[in-house]
Amino acid sequence: MTTPALTVHGLNKSFGSLVVANDIELALPQGERHALIGPNGAGKTTLINLMTGMLTPDGGQILLGDADISRLPPDLRVKRGLVRTFQINSLFPHLSALEAVTLAIGERRGIAPTWWRALPVYRDAIEEAYAILVSLRLGHVCTRPTRELAYGQQRLLEIALALATRPHVLLLDEPAAGVPRDESAELFSAIAGLSKDISILFIEHDMNVVFRFASRIIVMVGGRILVEGTPAEIAADRQVREVYLGKRHHV
Fold first, then answer.
1. Sign of the dihedral defined by the CA atoms of residues 179, 172, 205, 46, in that order
2. 168 to each of 66, 133, 181, how far by Cα in Å?
3. Which regions in the chain score pLDDT beneath 70?
């Protein structure tokens, strides 16, 4: 059996009497696209914060492939290949998309402080950056300043910056947050087209997008995993309908 790209065993986290992660078990197979959904306050972003080292768990284990990363700081998890995006953009508005991604590649290679001094020397970094942007359908706007890009394109640029680190696992925290509905399907279509060398776990509000693009769906409620299954299984699950879908809670 192939080792999952990311595994969580018995993960627990509390803030005083408030339990935000309750004995969580999760496995993300290699190359899969899984969605994490649940009502507001279910603990979805908290779980990503625990997996990426932004929060320290009270107990449990986090494995990236075969390696235990439970106690690694966030930057070393990134270097190992576990990368995330956030709900809010954190981009450089005056840089072009190509400049921003090239800078991120330079950071990965250790040449970020000097790459601009002799740009032709680092042409391969520029070519890699352009290839990433093309893979996310941003090639035609790669020279425009970030501040001039449509919001959906800015969210894709944030993913491009994550891809510049060459991740094995990509965690997307509401990648379509704030994106107009007519742009979100295009955004997720670009995400779905990414290399199967990258395993993806994403949080998303729009159930149409979730059921269209996720191979499996994980439902969280009250800091625990309620149920996991295929989109068809989740749509037919009585508990999910009662706790979440049927009551029209937001994810």
1. negative
2. 13, 18, 29
3. 87-90, 111-121, 244-251
Residue 184: CA atoms inside 13 Å, Cβ hemisphere, count? 17
DSSP 8-state class, residue 4: P
Cα 68 to Cα 5, 47, 142, 169, distances in angstroms: 12, 17, 38, 14
By DSSP bridging, strand 67-68 and strand 59-64 are: antiparallel
Q: What is the pLDDT of residues 54-105, one digit of tens each?
A: 999 999 999 999 999 999 999 999 999 999 987 666 678 889 999 999 988 9
CA gap 62, 18 in Å, rounded:
22
The number of C-alpha atoms within 13 Å of 67 and in the hemisphere containing its C-beta is: 11
pTM (two decimals): 0.88
Place of tokens 């680190």: 165
Radius of gyration in angstroms for the set of CA atoms belonging to the chain, rounded to a whole number: 19
Burial of 113 (0-12, 13-18, 19+ CB in 10 A): exposed
Amino acid, res. 73: P
Question: What is the chain's mean pLDDT, rounded?
Answer: 88
Q: Is the dihedral of CA 64, 68, 74, 76 positive or negative?
A: negative
Looking at residue 14, the DSSP 8-state letter turns out to be E
Per-residue tokens: 48:
């990503």
